[in-house]
Design a protein that fits this description.
The chain contains 13 helices and 12 strands. It is an alpha/beta fold and about 325 residues long. The structure holds adenosine-5'-triphosphate and magnesium ion.
Length: about 325
């Protein structure tokens, strides 16, 4: 681990037991929501995690913060293995790892006004000498996210979707975190508002040296704000590359299929671009296919893909792919 690495996941796993029986106490299998993910995030950078619904993105983010317990592997944050911390130490550490959510309305308590929402975490973590100091901090944070001071006495339902997301960002920011896990931060917002919120995240990162893990369905959303993008399928990473490289030279058939669903503004490019339609449903993470997990939906799948699970291989600087035939398909 280099000095600049803030987050290092090694073979992280979250397997949820599937319980059956009259007493619901018989384990009949496991949902392998996260099944051996390794990645690292340099301090001050943005890592984008993309993939279809149900592939394990949220579970990975929550496992990093230990909002769900990992069942295997390690999550090292600033040199500390979070998976080995006791619950008190983890609670203290959590100030430094904050999360923002897709739907700010359901993640903000409707009965609390904005001042109470923003000061709650300060009290929990003992930040600010007195009420005046906490008010000053909350005020500065509102300025930083572009909300007026009068917002303090209002309630979440009095704001628009974009403003509510700013409140969610302020709630995280007021604790001066090192890392923010942003779980689909703009997917509930109108397209015109999405860019404003993404720009705000970029500005805050530049001003405060924040590190982001941004989760999204949509490759178009993460394109401009991420340094590195990881593509997840059924609980595992299938490809990872510097953002510009992933978009210009996607190597995994799944990444190419995801990208082929993103329209290109230039009509000539749009006419020529490759379209790969994914057929079939996402298999169950309780019972993933043998060999390559993507093979049941891959137009190029061959015999070997059913037999042997492809490991992530490095094909260019920082560019890894889990496909036996990536070079041939390019
Ligand atoms: N607490 C839980 N208990 C059992 N299974 C769970 C639990 N949380 C998530 N899962 C399952 O784990 C898998 C991954 O879910 P997760 O929410 O992490 O996916 P996601 O990639 O965030 O999807 P989306 O894009 O829809 O938000 C799914 O099959 C889900 O049903
Ligand atoms: Mg999710």
């Amino acid at each position: 681990m280099t000095a600049e690495t803030l987050v290092e996941l090694k073979d992280l796993q979250v397997h949820f037991p599937i319980l059956r029986g009259v007493l619901v106490d018989r384990v009949v299998g496991h949902v392998k929501a996260v099944d051996g993910v390794s990645l690292s995030i340099p301090r001050g950078s943005t890592y984008g995690l993309v993939g279809e619904s149900g592939c394990g993105k949220t579970t990975l983010g929550r496992a990093l913060l230990r909002l769900v317990e990992p069942t295997g592997g390690t999550a090292v944050f600033d040199g500390v293995d979070l998976t080995a911390l006791g619950s008190n130490a983890m609670r203290t550490m959590r100030r430094r790892l904050q999360m923002i959510f897709q739907d700010p309305l359901s993640s903000l308590d409707p009965r609390q006004n904005i001042e109470s929402i923003l000061t709650e975490g300060l009290a929990t973590h003992g930040i600010g000498a007195d009420r005046a100091a906490r008010r000053a901090l909350v005020g500065e944070t509102l300025d930083a996210v572009g909300l007026p001071r009068w917002a303090l006495s209002r309630y979440p339902h009095e704001f628009s979707g974009g403003q509510r997301q700013r409140i969610g960002i302020a709630r995280a920011l007021v604790l001066s975190p090192d890392l923010i896990v942003a779980d689909e931060p703009v997917s509930a917002l109108d397209v015109s508002i999405q860019a404003q919120v993404l720009n705000l995240l970029a500005t805050l990162q530049a001003d405060r040296g924040l590190t982001y893990l941004v989760i999204a369905h949509d490759l178009a959303v993460v394109r401009h704000i991420c340094d590195t993008v990881g593509v997840m399928y059924l609980g595992a990473l299938v490809e990872q590359a510097p953002s510009a490289e992933l978009y210009t030279r996607p190597l995994h058939p799944y990444t190419r299929a995801l990208l082929s669903a993103v329209p290109v503004p230039d009509p000539d490019v749009e006419d020529r671009r490759e379209r790969i339609l994914l057929t079939g449903d996402l298999p169950s993470p309780a019972n993933p296919p043998s060999g390559c997990r993507f093979r049941t939906r891959c137009p190029w799948a061959r015999e070997r893909c059913a037999q042997e699970r492809p490991e992530l291989r490095t094909l260019a600087a920082g560019h890894t792919v889990a496909c036996h035939f990536a070079e041939e398909l390019e």
